[in-house]
Amino acid sequence: MLQSPHKPNDVQHPDECSEPVQRRRRRLFSWSKEEPLRNIRNGLWTGDVSVDNIKKPFKINFDTGSTTFWVACDCVNDPKNTCAGHTTILDCKNSPIYMSMATGFWVKDRVCIDHLCTNNEQWIGCANSTTVGTDEAATGDGIMGLAYNDGSMKWSPLQQIFRKPENDEKVFAFYLDSEAENRQDKRKT
Predict the structure, then answer these.
(1) Which of 50, 76, 142, 165 is 20–30 Å from 113 (CA)?
(2) Where is this chain compositionally biased, Basic and acidic residues type (predicted)?
(3) Helix, strand or coil for residue 56?
C-alpha cells in the first residue's frame, strides 16, 4: 500500500483573511507535488501509476481525451507474447473483484498517482492481449484516461480521487517548462 509521507491533515491552510495574496500563493504552490513525465513526440505523456496489489509502479500513457484505464495483466496465455515488453504486470486474482472479459479481465482495485488514491472501487481493464504496435509510443504498461466521465466508466480515476473528502484541492495539470532545454523536464501536478 502506498503511503504519503504527509497526511492531508498535516497541511496547514493559511488564514485567507490575514495573509497577503503573494504569501498565500507561495504556500499553495509549496503543497503541490510535481512528478516527472516523459513526452514522446509531443503526443504521448507517460508517468508512474500504482495499483494497490502491486509494489512496482506501472509506466502509464496518459490520455487526455478518455476515461479508459487499463494495464497489462497476466500474459501467460497470450500466444503473441504482446506483453513481453511491459515492466509491470498486474495479477488480477489479487484484486478484490475480477471477472473475465474478452481478451482480459475487469478488476476493481485501488489506484494511486503518487499519494493520491482512489478507493478500492476503481474499475481497471486488465489486458492480457493487446493490438498496440511495438513502436516507441507503445512502451507503456497501460493507459489512464484523464478526462471526466464519458459513459465508458462510472468514474475515472481522477474523478474518484477528487470525490474523496480529504482531497479538497481539486487541481490537476500537465505543463511544459518553456525555459527548459531538456525535453524530459515536464511535470504533472
Answers:
(1) 76
(2) 7-16
(3) coil
